[in-house]
């Protein structure tokens, strides 16, 4: 039988083309939104006309300025929120999630501000109460204008010792010597001396704040990137040595002469060694006992870190115990132990710094502005990277500058941020600068009502607190063997910065260290770095190639490896835009 087969003719090719086009169109419709984009096809003549119009627009100052300086509502709002960051985050503050942590953190950091503020005021050669002022006003200003959520603004050892060098240079003891007819000897008018030193500290602080504001307004926040990590760590280590040497007089109960200028640290050490036989035994005993107790307490703190929600405030406990013992035993009268003295209650009225001092402190103020900002932005970026937010470097300059300039009007000395307080603020649950504002409230309470209770506190205890708090900086000496293995040029920068800062004052040492670090920068043989200011694409590739050829004074041959890399016969490395 013949097989019955169904005959079917194949559709024409146009059928498959239409079907395929329909399927492609259907898939495209599913992928695309419900709108279409129309673009005009331009020939070469039309492109030239548009380019000419754009050229005329850019060359016309009136049109250009009208466009760039236009003040619309959204632009004004954006500028306001960028200038005053608190307006953007405080209205959306999550009370349930952050309030408890910020409260605990604020109280903990406020407790730390008390001993550190009083101790670092001694470094600045001013009365301890001005350390409390410096722990109050600048914090509130940074709370409004700062962009970091975790750093703790306030007194800092390196800044304080730099200010101390300025205050003792411009208001030395020799300028306030009076003859006492009763004892037939010269005595120091400490009241007038301390008042003048406060004026000097306020003037240099105000000037440093103005420098920081100016640098922030001209978008100069990037300048700190040229301070390499070895330079910063070597500088802070040397500054810590300056701090330790400056506190030896309180530890031994002696009065060495104040030296300034190059090699002043060496002269001070020699002077202290010469006066060691005159050591006040009572003061030395207080210092040694306090140092031992603080070290043991901090080790206990580290051991119980995971078990305790809040670190033990060992510095505050040490201050309270030392004050009570000094008051009960009468250490000043019986053993000649130097104490803090009168601490006035309340806040000082704002006073504009003396303009006559500005010319004498302008160099020191610029050094303070750079060092303070470098320390602040380094810590700020560390915690911003850890918690996934951005710190605006230029806004940080402005915020720190406003903190210092306004603080100078309220007789504060220059501030930055402290690693120890920042770590406590972060580890105790602080998530925003509300914690910093609460720590300022704690300081306000102490200043208004209980500050006078610490008048019998021995200065040797404050010096001991400084020694123990600087142990972290002294551990930076371990950078030397690590850098020896990793990069000996960086080690040379670290050691050179240390030596130069020790031999000179911290301000002069910073300038000398930057100059020394720049001498270590050189071009690697066989490598030429060329940066393009625009994205490389087909229209400007040839122009980029020609410009690069002119820079290296040769001619390119090929496009090896990448679309934006060119190879030259005289260089053995591929040259790519950064």
Automatic annotation (TrEMBL):
<feature type="transmembrane region" description="Helical">
    <location>
        <begin position="489"/>
        <end position="504"/>
    </location>
</feature>
<keyword id="KW-1133">Transmembrane helix</keyword>
<feature type="domain" description="STAS">
    <location>
        <begin position="517"/>
        <end position="578"/>
    </location>
</feature>
<feature type="transmembrane region" description="Helical">
    <location>
        <begin position="397"/>
        <end position="415"/>
    </location>
</feature>
<dbReference type="InterPro" id="IPR002645">
    <property type="entry name" value="STAS_dom"/>
</dbReference>
<keyword id="KW-0812">Transmembrane</keyword>
<dbReference type="InterPro" id="IPR001902">
    <property type="entry name" value="SLC26A/SulP_fam"/>
</dbReference>
<feature type="transmembrane region" description="Helical">
    <location>
        <begin position="365"/>
        <end position="385"/>
    </location>
</feature>
<dbReference type="InterPro" id="IPR011547">
    <property type="entry name" value="SLC26A/SulP_dom"/>
</dbReference>
<feature type="transmembrane region" description="Helical">
    <location>
        <begin position="460"/>
        <end position="477"/>
    </location>
</feature>
<keyword id="KW-0472">Membrane</keyword>
<dbReference type="GO" id="GO:0016020">
    <property type="term" value="C:membrane"/>
</dbReference>
<dbReference type="GO" id="GO:0008271">
    <property type="term" value="F:secondary active sulfate transmembrane transporter activity"/>
</dbReference>
<dbReference type="Pfam" id="PF00916">
    <property type="entry name" value="Sulfate_transp"/>
</dbReference>
<feature type="transmembrane region" description="Helical">
    <location>
        <begin position="200"/>
        <end position="227"/>
    </location>
</feature>
<feature type="transmembrane region" description="Helical">
    <location>
        <begin position="308"/>
        <end position="329"/>
    </location>
</feature>
<feature type="transmembrane region" description="Helical">
    <location>
        <begin position="435"/>
        <end position="454"/>
    </location>
</feature>
<feature type="transmembrane region" description="Helical">
    <location>
        <begin position="265"/>
        <end position="296"/>
    </location>
</feature>
<feature type="transmembrane region" description="Helical">
    <location>
        <begin position="120"/>
        <end position="145"/>
    </location>
</feature>
<protein>
    <recommendedName>
        <fullName>STAS domain-containing protein</fullName>
    </recommendedName>
</protein>
<dbReference type="InterPro" id="IPR018045">
    <property type="entry name" value="S04_transporter_CS"/>
</dbReference>
């Amino acid at each position: 039988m013949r097989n019955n087969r169904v005959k079917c003719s194949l559709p024409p090719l146009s059928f498959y083309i239409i079907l395929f086009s329909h399927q492609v169109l259907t898939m495209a419709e599913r992928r695309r939104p419900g709108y279409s984009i129309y673009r005009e096809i331009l020939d070469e003549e039309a492109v030239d006309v548009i380019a000419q119009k754009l050229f005329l627009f850019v060359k016309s100052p009136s049109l250009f300025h009208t466009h760039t300086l236009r003040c619309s509502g959204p632009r004004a709002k954006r500028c306001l929120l960028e200038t005053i960051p608190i307006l953007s985050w405080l209205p959306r503050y999550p009370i349930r999630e952050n309030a408890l942590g910020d409260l605990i953190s604020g109280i903990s950091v406020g407790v730390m501000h008390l001993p550190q503020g009083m101790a670092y005021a001694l470094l600045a050669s001013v009365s301890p109460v001005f350390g409390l002022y410096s722990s109050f006003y600048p914090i509130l200003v940074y709370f409004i204008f700062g962009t970091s959520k975790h750093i703790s603004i306030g007194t800092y050892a390196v800044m304080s010792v730099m200010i101390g060098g300025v205050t003792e240079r411009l208001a030395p003891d020799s300028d306030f010597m009076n003859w006492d007819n009763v004892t037939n000897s010269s005595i120091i008018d400490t009241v007038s001396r301390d008042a003048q030193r406060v004026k000097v500290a306020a003037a240099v602080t105000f000037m440093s704040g103005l420098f920081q504001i100016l640098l922030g307004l001209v978008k100069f926040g990037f300048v700190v990137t040229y301070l390499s990590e070895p330079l910063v760590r070597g500088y802070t280590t040397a500054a810590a040595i300056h701090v330790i040497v400056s506190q030896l007089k309180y530890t031994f109960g002696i009065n060495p002469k104040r030296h300034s200028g190059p090699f002043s640290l060496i002269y001070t050490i020699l002077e202290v060694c010469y006066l060691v036989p005159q050591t006040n035994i009572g003061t030395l005993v207080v210092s040694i006992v306090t140092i031992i107790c603080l070290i043991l307490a901090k080790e206990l703190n580290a051991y119980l870190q995971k078990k305790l929600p809040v670190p033990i405030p060992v510095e505050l406990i040490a201050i309270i115990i030392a004050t009570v013992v000094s008051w009960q035993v009468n250490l000043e009268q019986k053993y000649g132990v130097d104490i803090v003295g009168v601490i006035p209650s309340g806040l000082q009225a704002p006073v504009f710094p003396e303009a006559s001092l500005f010319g004498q402190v302008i160099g020191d103020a610029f050094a303070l502005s750079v060092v303070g900002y470098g320390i602040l932005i380094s810590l700020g970026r560390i915690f911003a990277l850890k918690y996934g937010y951005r710190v605006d470097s230029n806004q940080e300059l402005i915020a720190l500058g406003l903190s210092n300039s306004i603080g100078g009007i309220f007789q504060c000395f220059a501030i930055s941020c402290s690693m120890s307080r920042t770590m406590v603020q972060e580890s105790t649950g602080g998530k925003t600068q509300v914690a910093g504002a609460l720590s300022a409230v704690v300081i306000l309470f102490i200043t208004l009502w209980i500050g006078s209770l610490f008048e019998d506190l021995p200065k040797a205890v404050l010096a001991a607190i400084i020694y123990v708090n600087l142990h972290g900086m002294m551990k930076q000496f371990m950078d030397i063997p690590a850098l020896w293995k990793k990069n000996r040029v960086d080690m040379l920068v670290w050691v050179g910065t240390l030596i130069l800062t020790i031999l000179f004052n911290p301000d002069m040492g910073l300038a000398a260290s930057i100059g020394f670090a720049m001498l270590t920068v050189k071009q690697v043989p066989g490598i030429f770095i060329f940066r393009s200011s625009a994205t490389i694409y087909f229209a400007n590739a040839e122009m980029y190639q020609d410009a690069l050829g002119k820079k290296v004074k040769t001619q390119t041959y090929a496009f090896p490896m990448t679309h934006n890399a060119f190879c030259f016969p005289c260089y053995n490395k591929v040259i790519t835009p950064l």
